[in-house]
Design brief:
With about 270 residues, this protein is mainly α. It has two domains: about 140 residues, no CATH class; about 130 residues, no CATH class. Helix content is about 70%, strand content about 5%. Strands 1-2 form a two-stranded antiparallel sheet. About 35% of the residues are buried.
Length: about 270
């Protein structure tokens, strides 16, 4: 007889989603005074603008990240500790930040309501997936892990595009790319490899990705092309590390990864 599968606490899930949506709504209602902070770094004058959108999106990301830990702690298989579970906070925080940034640019109207519904659906899916993958024996874990991985890679591609599209100098863009690749790769690798090894390997992959980004920064490639190349590097790196750890790195796997790399690079060339 199959055991009863744990389900996310609906009250916690609803409250968390409502708070994130409220933060999105306040972007269009509340007007906070804009504060510009200027400082020098490496001989370059940097100016950061803190406005309503920045504050509310940061709040939404913080709510999603901390709320994910709150939701995960209701899982019967979770080992309760005083420290928050950082692994389960990364993707929800990134999802709330990225989806909110897109939603903030949608003009008022039916498109905004459709976008809000999609955003809520995606955010809830991420939170539920994080809840399911807590238990390695849960029969739903493989499907949840695939969904979590797919959305994480998509969000990472969007983050790379945003960083490149902002026109930041390499000295500021490259560290952001390194941190983003490291965080997402580390989270996804913890689904298949021991946590300590996962974050170490993710750090190496993050450095590799940042080096590729450094080279692309001075080439004549558009933001979409650069984002696709960097995402391809992270995606292939995660999968290579995973199959190597599980002992399934066969010649057929090399052919598969080679075909994916070739297809990805062909897409990048066609977008030139």
């Amino acid at each position: 007889m199959d055991r009863d599968l744990p389900q996310p606490d609906r009250e916690r899930l609803s409250a968390l989603t409502a708070l994130v949506v409220l933060a999105y709504g306040l972007i269009r209602i509340v007007v906070l005074p804009s504060v510009a902070v200027r400082f020098g770094a490496l001989g370059i004058i940097v100016q950061l603008n803190f406005d309503t959108q920045f504050v509310m999106l940061t709040l939404a990301a913080a709510l999603a990240a901390s709320g994910s830990d709150w939701l995960i702690r209701s899982h019967p298989g979770f080992e309760d500790t005083n420290a928050p579970d950082i692994d389960h906070m990364i993707v929800p925080g990134l999802a709330a930040l990225g989806l909110g940034a897109i939603l903030a640019r949608v003009p008022a109207g039916i498109g905004l309501w459709i976008g809000l519904a999609l955003t809520v659906g995606l955010l809830v899916s991420v939170l539920v997936a994080e809840y399911v993958v807590v238990d390695p024996l849960d029969p739903r874990r493989d499907i949840a892990a695939v969904g979590l991985s797919s959305l994480s890679i998509l969000l990472l591609a969007g983050a790379f595009f945003a960083i490149r599209g902002l026109g930041l100098r390499a000295v500021f863009a490259i560290p952001l790319i390194l941190v983003g690749a490291w965080a997402v790769a580390g989270r996804l690798l913890t689904l298949a490899t021991p946590r300590g090894q996962a974050w170490l390997q993710a750090g190496v992959l993050g450095v590799l990705t940042s080096q590729v980004a450094w080279g692309l920064h001075y080439w004549r490639v558009n933001p979409v092309q650069e984002a696709l190349v960097l995402t391809l590097v992270v995606y292939l790196g995660i999968n290579l590390i995973t199959v190597h750890f599980t002992g399934r790195l066969s010649p057929s796997r090399w052919v598969e990864f080679g075909a994916i790399a070739a297809l990805g690079l062909a897409t990048v060339i066609l977008l030139a």
